[in-house]
C-alpha cells in the first residue's frame, strides 16, 4: 500500500507538493509509522483518517518537526525538511489542545509567529486575520476568557497568519460539541478555499474527513490502507478494515474461482453470486463479498426481487427507528446478522421484527475484498451514527 | 502556591440541617478562626515592632543601668547610617551577588527537576531539601571545614593556580557569598520548581512550531510563565540573605561583616539599644524599598 499518491505521480512534483518517502518511526520495538509513502498536492485539503494509535498523529508530528523520523524523507517541493528543527520549517500546526500562550492576549498570540521572524509592524495583518476567524474585537482578551470554539479559531489564526506552505491540523475539532464542530468544519473548509494553503487534517472522525477533505487517506497500524476521494473510498473500499471504518459494510465470507467474462462468480454459504470484474479487488481464492447496508433492500418474497438483483433470505431480529432511516438486523439461515438501512421516505411500510424477509442488492453495488483464509463473515452490527444518514 | 478548588461532596450524608438564622454563629466563624493567629501576631510581632520603633527614638545617652528616655531622638537614624553604611551596603552587595549565583545554579536545577527528571523527580527534590534537616549553624560550620586553609578545596585551587600559594578562601568575601548562596538556595529552587513543574511542554512545542528558536522560546514562553515562582523564590532568598549574620560571622572576618552582625552586637555586646533598633528599622525600610521596586519592574499584578 506504499507509494500511492493522491494524484498521478508520473510527473515531477511541482514546487509545493508535500511528499513523504519511506517515512518510518519506531518507538523502541513499536513501529508507529511503517514505511509510509504519500504525495499531498499543493493547495489540497488532505485528511489522514484512522483510529487512535494508528500513527496518524506521529506522521503529522514528523511533518511539523516535533518528532524525528527513524528513517525516510519529508520533502516539501524538492527540499528534504525531515531533519530541520521545527522553527526552521515553513509549516504550522493547529494543536489538538490549541496550546495558546496563557500569558499573552489574543493579539499577541496571533502575532507570535510574525514577531519571531523579525516582522515589526504586525497590526494590520493580525487584525485582518482576527477578522477572518470572526474574532475582531477579542484582541485584548486572554485565552482563558474565551470559549473552546473561540480558542480553536485563535489557534487557527495564529498558525494561518504565517502563510505556511502546509498547515497541519491535529484533531482541532475534537474538544468541541457536535453542533459547534459542524459549524467549524464548514468554516475551516471556507478558509482553506480562501487562502489556498495545503491543509493536512488528522482525525478519527470519518464524517469530518469525508465532509471536509478532497482526499482521504485511511491509516491502520502505521500504514495507509486506502487513499482517494471520499466517495471513491466509500463506494469501493480496498480492504475489510476500510469497509468497516469508513461507514459500515456487510462482508460475507466467500470463495472466488477467477473471472468469468466481465463478472467474478463467487460461492458464499452454498449460494452463488457474482460481482462485476471492475469491483473485485481479488478474483480468486478467499474473498469477502461486500454490500453497504443502505444498498441492501428488504422485500417479503423472492418473486418481488427485481430482475438482475441477488439475494439472501432471513428473519428480521431487530428494527431501530433513527428518524431519517430504519436500521434492520436480518439473521441469515447460517446465523450471521446482516444490516440493512431503509430510508423513511414514506414509500413502503416498516417491516416488523420476526418477519421473514428477502434481502436483495444490485450486483453493481457489491464489491469483492481480500479475505484472510479462515475468516468468517464480518458484519458491523448497528452503529449509533451511520455515515450518510444526515447527508 | 496553587489554590486547589475543592468541591465538597455530600454523598451519603443525611440532609444538611436547616441554615441558622442570619447573623448567627456562622457569620462570626471566620473571625473566630482568625483569632489565634491574629493574637499571636499582635503579641509577638506588632507589640515588639512598636517597642522597637520606640527604642529607636530613645535618647542615645541612656544605658541599661541608667535607663532610657523616649526623647524622639530622630538623630539616631542619620548617626547609624553614618557609622555603619559600609555594612549596610555590603549586606545588599553580598546578598545580591549570592542571588545572581543562586539563580545561575537554581533555575537550571529547578527546570531539570521539573521537566526532565522523570522518575528521579522526587529523589532530586529530597536532595534539594535534605540539607535543611540539619541546623543552619551546623551547615555553615561544615562550610568552614570545606573552605579551611588546609582543606582539599583550597589545596586543589592552589594546585591549579586559581589561588596563589598563600591564597585562602575562609575569611574572605568569597566565603561569605558562597555560604549565603548555599544556605538560601532551597528557598529559591522550590518555588521555581513549583512554577516550572506546571509548565505545559506543548506550549514549548507550539513556540517552536511558530518560528521561536530555543533561546526565544525560553525568553518568550518559559521565563514569563515561571515568573510567579521566580519572584517568590528571589524574595525568599534575598530578604533573609540580606539580614543574615551567621555566614559573615563564621566564614568571614569583621571586614566582611554585614548589617546583621552590627545589629547583633548593638543589642548583645555593646548594649546600644537605640542604635540597634534604628539599624533594624533602616534595614527593614531598605529591603521594603528594594522589594517594592523589584515587584514594580517584574510587573506581577498578583503580588501588588
Produce a short descriptive summary.
The complex is a heterodimer of chains A (391) and B (304). Chain A is α+β, with helices and mostly antiparallel strands and 391 residues long.
Task: Give a written overview of the molecule.
The complex is a heterodimer of chains A (391) and B (304). Chain A is of the alpha+beta class and 391 residues long. Chain A folds into 2 domains: 18-232, Rossmann fold (3-Layer(aba) Sandwich), CATH 3.40.50.300; 248-378, OB fold (Dihydrolipoamide Acetyltransferase, E2P) (Beta Barrel). Helices cover 20% and strands 34% of the residues of chain A. Chain A has 8 helices and 21 strands. With 304 residues, chain B is mainly α. Chain B has a single domain (85-298), classed as MetI-like (MetI-like fold, Orthogonal Bundle). Chain B has 12 helices and no strands. In chain B, helix 11 runs antiparallel to helix 12. Chain B starts with 24 loop residues before the first helix and ends in a 6-residue tail after the last helix. Chains A and B meet through strand 6 and helix 2 of A and helix 7 and helix 8 of B.
